[in-house]
Design a protein that fits this description.
heterodimer; A: 154 residues; alpha+beta; 5 helices; 41% helix; B: 117 residues; alpha/beta; Rossmann fold; 3-stranded parallel beta sheet; globular
């Protein structure tokens, strides 16, 4: 059983994990993959870091937990899963790459909400989008944490 | 479930999910392979499947004899189909995915065995 990029969006991740674990057969394995936006804390240049600070403030207001990745292991241990192991990795990408295009599309979809929230302004959004089009700009954004555990009794 | 800020109704959501698959599926498949548990005949479940790209891959991996179940709040952006890929609409916050209730959207039938890869 697997779930990717789901738990950071749900209103109650604890309930969702309880239900995921309850859906496992005895001896079944649950693999969760969720983001952890830790890398944006060192993003360069400073206006990009300011963009991500605003993004994270907006996401908190919308009930999105972009740091949930770091909590997956204890969340799987709590209901008694065994053989828990995990790792995390991040992509390093430049403007014009698939990752940059993904962010450009996502931010354009959310542009009105981001700016309307007051957590970001037009200048920060446009500056970030300009970097996403600049092939000389390199960055990393999201660490993805992958953690698995097995239902006991196998 | 909280309101999903990037709902499937948004104009670019299909393309955004396709980019997400392109970016994250290789990593996801690598982690699943490392578990060494997905074999022909197995039953798998992907919760929050989006466009079901991983579920479609799992359907290939568990064939012959296995079943991959793709579960999401909204199945409208799933274009992939396979004989052993079952689509199931639901909310994981509302309750567990009951094995006995697994039903295909296109080919409703009851599946007797449990999920879990």
């Amino acid at each position: 059983m697997t779930a990717r990029a789901v738990l950071h969006h749900v209103a109650d991740a604890e309930v969702a994990i309880t239900n995921l674990v309850a859906s496992l057969r005895t001896g079944g394995v649950l693999l969760l993959i969720e983001p952890d936006f830790l890398p944006v804390s060192i993003a360069e240049p400073p206006e990009v870091r300011a963009f991500w600070d605003g993004w994270l403030a907006w996401s908190r207001e919308r009930g999105i937990d972009y740091h949930i990745g770091r909590t997956l292991a204890p969340r799987l241990a709590a209901p008694g899963l065994t053989q828990i192991s995990g790792t995390a990795e991040t992509a390093i990408y430049n403007g014009g790459s698939t990752w940059a295009n993904y962010w450009t599309l996502t931010i354009n979809e959310l542009r009105d909400d981001l700016i309307g929230s007051g957590k970001l302004n037009v200048a920060l959004v446009d500056t970030f989008l300009n970097h996403c089009a600049d092939s000389n700009w390199w960055t990393q954004t999201v660490a993805f944490t992958a953690v698995s555990g097995r239902s006991p009794g196998a | 479930m909280s309101k999903y800020v990037l709902g499937h109704h948004l104009k670019g959501e299909g393309k955004r999910l396709a980019l997400m698959s392109e970016l994250l599926d290789p990593m996801h498949r690598r982690y699943i392979d490392a578990l060494n548990i997905v074999r022909p005949g197995a039953r798998t479940l992907e919760v929050g499947c989006g466009n079901a790209s991983i579920s479609a891959w799992l359907a290939e991996r568990v064939s012959p004899g296995g079943t991959a179940v793709a579960f999401d709040l909204d199945l409208s952006l799933i274009e992939v189909r396979a004989p052993n890929l079952e689509l199931r609409q639901g909310d994981i916050v509302a309750g567990p995915v009951a094995p006995a209730d697994f039903r295909s959207r296109d080919r409703p039938r009851r599946v007797a065995s449990c999920c879990g890869c």
